[in-house]
Structures are given as C-alpha cells and as structure tokens.
Amino acid sequence: DAKTTQPNSMESNEEEPVHLPCNHSTISGTDYIHWYRQLPSQGPEYVIHGLTSNVNNRMASLAIAEDRKSSTLILHRATLRDAAVYYCILRRDSNNDMRFGAGTRLTVKP
Amino acid sequence: NAGVTQTPKFRILKIGQSMTLQCAQDMNHNYMYWYRQDPGMGLKLIYYSVGAGITDKGEVPNGYNVSRSTTEDFPLRLELAAPSQTSVYFCASTLPDPNTEAFFGQGTRLTVV
C-alpha cells in the first residue's frame, strides 16, 4: 500500500498562511490524495482531495507536485479554530481499506 | 441527512464485560470502517466492510468482531473487554469511488476498568 509521511507537528501564527506537507513517494497513478482534519475531541472531517491538479475549496487549497510524490495543504489565513491534527491519506479503486498515519498536529498561536 | 451516527457517546465497562458499539449511516454508502484512537495517537483501522455481508480485518482486529447485515449499520462487538481496549472509537463511511469524501461519526469514548 502506498504510504504517506507527514511531520509530527507544526506551528503557525494566527492570520498567517500555513503550508502542511505530505510525502507519498510510492503513489500510483490512480491514487487520490485526501486530507482530513480532526479538531480536539471531535471526529475527523474532510478537508480536500485531488488527483493531479491543484484544488481549491472554501476551507483550503491543495497543491500537488508535478511528479505527485508530494503534496501541500495550504490554509491561507490560519485561525485559532484551525488548530487540529491534519491527516494526509491515499485512496485508490483497488484498495478498499482506508488507513491513517499519525498526522501533523497544527498549533496556531494568537 | 444525519450522516454517520454512533451510539453510545460514552461508556464504562468492567473487565470481561461485553458490549456493542453502534454505527449507522443514512447516505447509502457501501464502505464502512471502524477505527480506534488512543490518547495522542492517530487512527488505527480495526475492521472494514465494502458492503452488506462482507467484512475484513484491518490493522488491529484482535478482541473485536463485526457484522454487516444491512447497508446502513455496522456494529462493533467487544466480547471480553480488557483495559487495553480503553480508547475512542470512530466509525466512518464512504462510497467506493476514491474521488469521494469519507464521513466520520463523533466517536464513542470507552473506558474499561
């Protein structure tokens, strides 16, 4: 199974942009890159996903490297509410299970 | 849509007792998952199901059982509770298409004493 690697933790200042990296060097052509986040004491929630092109939605942007071996989740202006654990996972048609790593714990300082 | 609903939210069990954690979704999702999350750790996959009547083991299935008799429900059974099963349990569901998002319940916090 293709695995992802993320830093254990990152810090950001409020109202500044945050770039959360994810490495997935063994990604295959049919793997979608998904990002989820888990706010304190809550279940994970979907953030964004993409295949090859960069993606934007109301929560964040996803920048995917040209060789697709890495991606970056971009929060354009971090707020205190964005403090959470962010998970990057890969999903493909032929692989039914959905496994998570430890994620990146984002701390946002006022 | 209620999404993914887990019951109960909290439960305290004594060692050796059994219980069933309930998970229901109303989005007609084929795929459903059970995870456990220990304090300060990531999600570990316990079991998953790709449809009614089909279940498969994840990373940490020992001590748990599942069944999937309907598309909507995916209960997780603990037969002989042990302190090592103290954790927060999350259920998730999604469609088979990897180009779709997954939805998670709010979790069941289980303590075994």
Q: Concise description?
A:
The complex is a heterodimer of chains A (110) and B (113). By secondary structure, chain A is an all-beta fold.
Characterise this structure.
The complex is a heterodimer of chains A (110) and B (113). With 110 residues, chain A is an all-beta fold. Chain A contains no helices and nine strands. With 113 residues, chain B is mainly β. Chain B has strands spanning 4-7, 10-13, 19-25, 31-37, 44-51, 54-57, 64-66, 76-78, 87-94, 103-104, 108-112. In chain B, the strands form two sheets. In chain B, strands 2, 4, 5, 6, 9, 10 and 11 form a seven-stranded mixed sheet that branches. Chain B has a four-stranded antiparallel sheet with strand order 1-3-8-7, with no helix packed on it. In chain B, strand 4 and strand 5 (44-51) form a beta hairpin. The chains are: A mainly beta (110), B mainly beta (113). Chains A and B meet through strand 3, strand 4 and strand 8 of A and strand 4, strand 5, strand 9 and strand 10 of B.
Taking Cα atoms only, what radius of gyration of chain A do you get, to the nearest Å?
Answer: 13 Å
Secondary-structure element pattern of chain A, one letter each: EEEEEEEEE
Taken from the alpha-carbon principal axes, the silhouette of chain A is globular
Q: Count of helical segments of chain A? A: 0
Helix content of chain B: under 10%
Number of strands of chain A: 9
Enumerate how many helices of chain B there are, as a single number: 0
Oligomeric assembly: heterodimer
Shape of chain B: globular
